[in-house]
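Quick one, tokens below:
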């Protein structure tokens, strides 16, 4: 789905979530609570050119894997865009995840993270020398006993926790 200049961000007090209005009575509810959003996300509700470019890059990247349908790629890319541009900065919560001890470097934006109880797919939204902001692609990811990460929620982790993703049906594509 091509990004549109008519798309709008909406802070939905009723749902306590960030929504994106895609026009024609179509809205997507993100998993991001209003209290976790930046202050300027309320002041600029229009989908910006930077957001549209990021969305389109993520959408095209994900479609290249031939794993997710176009609507799924759209949903992932919209949630990734919301996380990148509207979430407050967060501290890394790496203690939930096992370190990666392999010798194959992570070269993709879709990676694997492992906790004591789960293994799941994540999309790297932002990456720096020490940590990465990641979006959960798994339906459910158990971080620890009683703590769960829902699909499309974001979490920041140290880069030594990122493992290459190995899926037999994943078409290799460079990041």
């Amino acid at each position: 789905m091509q990004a549109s200049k008519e798309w709008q961000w909406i802070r939905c007090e009723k749902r306590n979530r960030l929504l994106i209005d895609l026009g024609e009575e179509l809205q997507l509810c993100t998993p991001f609570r209003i209290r976790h959003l930046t202050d300027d996300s309320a002041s600029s509700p229009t989908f910006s050119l930077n957001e549209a470019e990021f969305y389109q890059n993520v959408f095209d990247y994900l479609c290249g894997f031939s794993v997710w349908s176009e609507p799924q790629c759209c949903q992932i890319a919209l949630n990734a865009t919301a996380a990148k541009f509207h979430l407050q900065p967060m501290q890394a919560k790496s203690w939930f995840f096992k370190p990666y001890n392999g010798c194959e470097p992570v070269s993709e934006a879709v990676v694997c993270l492992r906790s004591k109880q789960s293994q799941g797919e994540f999309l790297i939204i932002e990456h720096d020398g020490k940590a990465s902001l990641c979006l959960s692609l798994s339906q459910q990811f158990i971080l620890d006993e009683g703590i769960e990460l829902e699909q499309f929620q974001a979490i920041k982790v140290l880069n030594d926790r990122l493992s290459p993703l190995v899926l037999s049906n994943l078409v290799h594509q460079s990041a």
